[in-house]
Amino acid sequence: MTKNKIGIITMGCPKNLVDSEKLAALLADEGFTVEHEQSDADIVIINTCGFINDAKEESINEILSHCDQKKNGKEVKVLVTGCLSERYGEQLKKEIPEADAFFGVDEYDKVVEWITGHVQKSGPKRILGTPQHYAYLKISEGCDRTCSFCAIPIIRGGHASIPEEKLLEEAEQLALHGVKELIVIAQDTISYGVDLYGERRIARLLNKLSDIQGIEWIRLMYTYPAGFPDDLIEEIATNPKIVKYIDLPLQHISTSILHSMRRAIDREATEELIAKLRKRIPDVAIRSTFIVGYPGEKASDYTELLQFIKESKFERFGVFAYSPEEDTAAFELRDNIPHKTKMQRMSGLLRLHEKSSIELNKKLIGKTLPVLLDEYNEAEQCFYGRTPKDAPEIDNVVRVFTKSQHVLRPGDIIQATVTASGIFDIDCTY
Question: Which of 33, 50, 51 is nearest to 42 (CA)?
Answer without folding.
Answer: 33
